[in-house]
Amino acid sequence: MPQKQTQPAWLPPALAYVQDWMAFQVERYKQPGCAVAIARGPQLLAEYAFGLADLRTGEAMTPRHRFRIASHSKSFTASAVMLLRDQGKLGLDDAIGKHVGGLHKDLASARVAELLSHGAGVTRDGADSGQFMDRRPFLSRAELMDELSRKQPLEPGVQLKYSNHGYALLGVLIEELTGSGYADWMTRHVIAAAGLKETVPDMPQLPKRAPIAKGHSTEFPFGQRLLVPGDNPCDAIAAAGGFVATAADTARFFAQLDPKAKDSILSPASRRAMMQRRWRDECSVQESWYGLGTMSNAPGPKEWFGHTGGLQGFVSRTSRFTASGLTITVLCNAVDGLSWLWVDSIASILNAFAQHGAPAKKLEPWRGRWWSLWGAVDMVPIGKIVMQVAPVMNPPFDGANTECAIQGKDHGLIQRTSGYNSPGQAVRLVRDRKGKAVELWSGGTKLLPRDAMVEEAMGRYRGINADASPTPPTRPRKPPPAPATSPSRTPPDPARSRPAAVAAGRPGRAAAG
Description:
nine-stranded antiparallel beta sheet
């Protein structure tokens, strides 16, 4: 009988703070909604949903909502090609023209590995990328092949040149080698084989009753967020950007791509090949590499592999972090979602708790969020200290956090912080007659609960803000409970409000497996 994995003591409080921090972020940055999943190996540790799936109807987001995961599709398609390689049906050094006819002669000479790594010089989205602006339907196979019959912008093997058309060509390759339609073959041999039950390769395959998040535009310059349905089929571009999935399924899929994973649809050799850094983006602000269907950063303590996605109305990111073995997926249903930053920020929270350990029980009374005119401060017990964290920051935990040594029930000392803060000064809680903490003093600054701070500030400035309402802002409504869960920058690409920032299910409780 397989033994049940035991979780480290730091994990539950870390996940609780991830949920609380993400709810704050969605509200603070006025996002419609977001879904998050965290896995270690094949085990889903937690999944969360925040805000709304549809601003128009007010439908609450749940962990079961599907998103357009856009260019995550490339990792699925690359896995299919590598699976055919494991089966001996192709080689990575094969010229694509050996298997697919009708291509321009220069493109026909490109190797399969060059297409997988975006090194084949193929046009990104053709002469007119209006399909990614909802100006026209996505290309049919005939339209795609017509564009690929023409000379491409670069020769193969020159540089990284991201291409949705190149991955669409890999979809054609899969059809030619298997004699099946791309969607049918992917469903049977990749999606089902990986044990995914909430994933389809394109919108036409989505069950009618499956909940799907609606996409949204930015608020500026429209004066409101526009609803972007996001239900259009990607047709021949599905291999590059058509996939639809939940955060949980996405995290599970990338977790099994790890070369050390015990169960995977691919051989360890094929997974290692996918992770190899083939091309470096020399113009990226952040260190960025592309392998065979996977993105990665530079080697080091924060090393990860994964992918991003962006389709009109949606942005997303998944990263598997080498050091911790954690896979984190963040799916957003607005084009200005902070999926890239949020993945790194969630990793910073988990890493901080792993480093310091579970918080001592005596520090629990210090946990809470406090407010001043300057914003929010979180008091986060962790290990033997209490950290002061600004929840607006991305990432919330870094090398500059303020650390407080607690010396009594309601008294402590700021022992480590920036010299521009208040090192060496006191931190203390003030309680009312019932013992409830009603003030936090940090150095010489008094902080209050949210509603108390809003009431105080609006009262103070009411005379010069005549139109301001003295009533504190209402909290987001509580959504219906989410279905039970099962056990267990590189810039976003185009193959790719008013929020209610509450987690699906009961507040303060993760939907964990």
